[in-house]
Amino acid sequence: MASTVGKKYDFTGKVALITGSSSGIGAAIALQFAEYGARVTITGRDSETLKAVGKEIEDKSGHRPLQIHGDFIDQSFANELIEKTITEYGQLDFLVNNAGIGTIGGLESENFMAEFDKVFAINVRAPVHLIKLAASHLEKTKGNIINISSIASLVPV
After folding, report:
1. How does pLDDT run across 111-123, given as a tens digit for each residue?
2. Do 99 and 128 form a contact (C-beta atoms < 8 A)?
């Protein structure tokens, strides 16, 4: 197990749930939490990349993450994330809402409303739902919520 001695933070005994952590910023956040001693739940839509990130986290930190494959289009996925994290670790200290998608279609797109509904479900509804489900657990640990957004939201396509 990797030591947190000399590191900027010591999250030993803490639990972090990071959405959208099978790649990119989410994967880096999950790895950093684990390297600082936290037990982490990682999640994503691509099971193969999720497994690869899980292996990297375990190799670099000595902590094996809880890996939950799924998609926020399925509204029950938020329940599954919270329930499995609490069942596995018994607490929640950090909720990092990082999962998000974009769309390349504009107003002229034939499927504009369907694309809008999907983006809204993943980028807005899912984080709010997770916050609602996690709030009581985070209150017990005096935990934190970190919401991440894209600068793309400032410039509509």
Report:
1. 889 998 999 999 9
2. no
